[in-house]
Amino acid sequence: MTILTRRLGIGLGILGLSISFINAGPKEDLKNNQWQIVGGSPELQELFNQNITLTFTDNIMSIQGGCNVQNGAYFTIFDRLIVREMASTMMACDSKLMRKDQLSAQFFDLSTSKYTINNTPEGLVLKITNPKRQVLDLKAIH
Fold it and tell me: Which CATH number is 89's domain given?
């Protein structure tokens, strides 16, 4: 019984360390900043420098700056950003703004993307690469 208790304690300790590691670091940088799309893959260039921003709260990612506001549940595990179904307001707008909404929604559509956050002389930079190998580069603006 003592051996089982020790093994269980060690296992829980390892699990506790893993949980702490998963929730540390980059996710806090995600949540403590508003992110503006500034670059990325050429096929997404309509999104660059257009005041399109991403905001992350505890469990919700919001995209603003096209025509509509889009929200979706997300979570992170290590260097992965997992986005679940996105919902959107349904305002009719100029076709160029609607296209921005469409591109941003397609980029994150039920995807598990790789992300990195780097501290550069210009500030924090977030890079997201989706499963289609499309890239968005974002800079922290708050």
Answer: 2.40.128.270
pLDDT-based confidence at residue 15 (cuts at 50, 70, 90) = very low
pTM beyond cutoff 0.85: no
Counted domains in the chain: 1
Domain residue limits at 71: 2-140
111 by DSSP, 3-state: which?
Answer: coil
Cα of 136 vs its chain's centroid, Å: 10
What pLDDT does residue 21 have? 36
What is the Cα–Cα distance from 112 to 1, expressed in whole angstroms?
A: 42
Measured distance between the N- and C-terminal CA atoms of the chain, rounded to whole angstroms: 54
Tokens found for residue 25: 């670091």
- Please count the other Cβ atoms lying within 10 Å of the Cβ belonging to residue 102: 14
Closest residue by Cα to residue 124 from 106, 138, 110, 105 = 138
Give yes or no for a contact between 137 and 50, defined as CB atoms under 8 angstroms apart: no
In Å, how far from its chain's centre is CA 116?
10
- Which tokens belong to 38? 């500034």
- The phi and psi torsions of 25 (rounded to 5 degrees) equal 75, -115
